[in-house]
């Protein structure tokens, strides 16, 4: 624990913005107006900022009494929720509580091991879809021959694309839209368990098929495991993570997807020489497809030992359980109580937890705040596919074969792609919350376009060794940029851009978008490659990356560093106003950074302007403090 001298010296960290308010407040303790002015920025950004510390403490006390929790703890926690960085001037907090709050700001990665476990466990579900993308990559070198699809005909080309894309047809058309219904009835953990069970069973089923349409059916049903899981896990992680490192923790989804992609190539390499052993129509491709069930079993064994989402529990009125869940994933009781109380207050602003599904869908498009969030989610999910990454994930072995590799070397080169994809996802832990989601995309899209053109144009190189070397280089460089930008951003962004009451529906919409265009891409690539040749096919997706740059510039608000419920003001800015501002901002940046003009930066676009929804409990809570001085 910090000594009294250490606590008293916290204000000396003048370079740290978290302590500026306290430092100034204490240096002018006799001047109330100056203190209010100094703390105004923090209070302006806080829905509790319109109330005094005594009033907010009364709110916290009444909230705890209403739900049978510790009123003294929640009284102190409510004051911290009102001014999170002002804890040093709060005499009612113990030294231990001040130390914990200080370390939370100064060392945000010092979080309980249960939160690390929750994020890693949940995100392992992503390894299932990652493995499926790549084991089908290796299996398609074999199953077309056994199923009579190896002849170079238009029909066979489309059938192979249809089999490969079958899970994503199911995801986009059916399974993603069951997410809200499943989460409503089974909660986050129950949905994850069920979908991992479906994934494990259908992966084994696909390994036991004996003709192409049976394989198509089994892979179609795999979509019932992939769709709701991909919608639920990022939301679950997002709802449990602290705001300052939410992006880094939620992007564990992409890290484990990349790990699954890489491990799928390992399984393909491990089994490609396995003889048939009298197994009908081969054994090696069956082992490849069945191996994708392994991470699903690992998730199933662990998910029930993790806490449920506190936000989901509050949505069901289970406040004591929500506090208990927060207590497992926050360092101290004061932090757990602070987040429980503040989450409750912010959720009250969102009016209603209960709403019919089709009304949620309607309000996702008719309410401007929800519509802007949904458009942002659509953009990042659409571009995750049309940047061209899954062309390589599904067909890299075939691409390398076409460029001159032998079969074994094509699988090894594909494994190299998987390793690059995984390793370069790790730097995004540091960059996604430091630079922001939008900035990463604006940086990445032009680079990805250039590397796709490099890959496609390399097919014109006549010297075989030079050709395969440049093709591999282009694919690896493209993958490195993708994995640290467009890879982790979409599911992180989509999980945090929606208000709670439409969050599941918005995530369903986002993942359905992702899987629909995944289906389109994997279905059409064999035929596109045949018609356009590699140069035209890769050029097509290079052009889409340049379009993606402007879509990110005009349609994506930044979300880093804000609590999930504090994004309302950001997404409530009219889309034309946002696009016009970002265009001016880009011109201003070019003038300053490229042409070195000595001109000022333009003013920020966002200013916190909250308008509380008329919610009866929120009205009652405010009424409770009307006479508190």
From TrEMBL:
Classification via SUPFAM superfamilies: MFS general substrate transporter
Keywords associated with the record: Membrane, Transmembrane, Transmembrane helix, Transport
Bilayer topology annotation: Multi-pass membrane protein
Chain residue ranges for the region called Disordered: 1-38
Main location: membrane
Transmembrane portions of the chain: 190-208, 253-275, 287-305, 375-397, 409-430, 442-461, 468-485, 505-525, 537-556
Ranges of compositional bias, category Polar residues: 1-10
Similarity field: Belongs to the major facilitator superfamily. Sugar transporter (TC 2.A.1.1) family.
Domain Major facilitator superfamily (MFS) profile: 118-560
Locations listed in the record: Membrane
Single Gene Ontology BP annotation: polyol transmembrane transport
Protein name, UniProt field: Major facilitator superfamily (MFS) profile domain-containing protein
Entry GO CC: membrane
Species per Swiss-Prot/TrEMBL record: Ogataea philodendri
Gene Ontology MF terms: transmembrane transporter activity
Matching InterPro entries: MFS_dom (IPR020846), MFS_sugar_transport-like (IPR005828), MFS_trans_sf (IPR036259), Myo-inositol_Transporter (IPR050814), Sugar/inositol_transpt (IPR003663), Sugar_transporter_CS (IPR005829)
NCBIfam families: SP (TIGR00879)
Coiled-coil ranges (or none): none
């Amino acid at each position: 624990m910090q000594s009294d001298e250490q606590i008293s010296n916290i204000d000396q960290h003048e370079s740290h913005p978290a302590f500026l308010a306290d430092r100034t407040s204490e240096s002018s303790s006799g001047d109330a107006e100056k203190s209010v002015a100094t703390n105004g920025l923090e209070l302006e950004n806080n829905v509790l900022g319109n109330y005094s510390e005594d009033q907010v403490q009364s709110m916290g006390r009444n909230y705890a009494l209403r739900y049978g929790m510790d009123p003294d703890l929640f009284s102190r926690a409510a004051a911290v929720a009102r001014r999170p960085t002002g804890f040093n001037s709060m005499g009612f907090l113990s030294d231990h509580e001040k130390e914990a709050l200080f370390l939370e700001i100064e060392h945000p990665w010092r979080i309980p091991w249960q939160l690390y476990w929750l994020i890693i466990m949940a995100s392992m579900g992503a390894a299932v879809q990652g493995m499926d993308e790549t084991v089908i990559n290796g299996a398609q070198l074999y199953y077309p021959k056994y199923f009579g699809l190896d002849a170079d005909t238009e029909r066979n080309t489309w059938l192979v694309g249809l089999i490969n894309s079958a899970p994503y047809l199911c995801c986009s058309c059916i399974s993603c839209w069951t997410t809200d219904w499943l989460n409503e009835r089974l909660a986050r953990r129950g949905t994850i368990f069920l979908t991992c069970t479906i994934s494990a069973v259908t992966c084994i089923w696909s390994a036991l098929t004996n003709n192409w349409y049976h394989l198509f059916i089994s892979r179609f049903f795999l979509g019932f495991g992939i769709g709701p899981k991909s919608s639920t896990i990022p939301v679950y992680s997002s709802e449990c993570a602290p705001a300052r490192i939410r992006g880094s923790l939620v992007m564990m989804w992409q890290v484990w997807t990349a790990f699954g992609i890489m491990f799928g190539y390992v399984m393909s390499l491990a089994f490609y020489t396995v003889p048939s052993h009298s197994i009908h129509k081969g054994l090696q491709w069956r082992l490849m497809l069945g191996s994708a069930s392994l991470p699903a079993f690992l998730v199933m064994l662990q998910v029930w030992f993790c806490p449920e989402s506190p936000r989901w529990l509050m949505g069901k009125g289970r406040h004591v359980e929500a506090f208990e869940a927060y207590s497992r994933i926050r360092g101290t009781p004061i932090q757990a109580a602070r987040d429980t109380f503040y989450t409750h207050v912010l959720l009250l602003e969102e009016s209603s937890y209960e709403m019919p599904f089709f009304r949620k869908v309607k309000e996702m498009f008719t309410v401007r705040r929800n519509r802007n969030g949904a458009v942002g989610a659509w953009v990042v999910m659409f571009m995750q596919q049309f940047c061209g990454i899954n062309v390589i994930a599904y067909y890299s072995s075939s691409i390398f074969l076409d460029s001159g590799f032998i079969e074994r070397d094509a699988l090894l080169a594909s494994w190299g792609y998987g390793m690059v994809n995984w390793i370069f996802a790790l730097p995004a832990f540091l960059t996604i919350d430091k630079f922001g989601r939008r900035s990463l995309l604006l940086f990445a899209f032009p680079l990805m376009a250039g590397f796709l053109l490099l890959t496609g144009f390399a097919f014109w190189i006549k010297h075989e060794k030079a050709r395969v070397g440049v093709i591999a280089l282009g694919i690896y460089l493209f993958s490195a940029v993708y994995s640290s930008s467009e890879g982790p951003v979409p599911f992180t962004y989509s999980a945090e851009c929606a208000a709670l009451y439409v969050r599941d529906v918005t995530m369903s919409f986002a993942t359905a978008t992702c899987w629909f265009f995944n289906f389109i891409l994997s279905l059409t690539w064999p035929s596109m490659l045949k018609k356009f040749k590699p140069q035209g096919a890769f050029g097509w997706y290079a052009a889409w990356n340049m379009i993606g740059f402007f879509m990110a510039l005009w349609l994506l608000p930044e979300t880093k560093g804000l609590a999930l419920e504090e994004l309302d003001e950001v997404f409530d800015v009219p889309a034309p106003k946002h696009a016009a501002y970002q265009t001016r901002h880009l011109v201003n940046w070019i003038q300053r950074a490229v042409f070195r003009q000595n001109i000022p930066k333009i003013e920020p676009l966002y200013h916190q302007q909250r308008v509380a929804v008329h919610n009866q409990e929120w009205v009652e809570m405010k009424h409770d403090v009307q006479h508190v001085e």
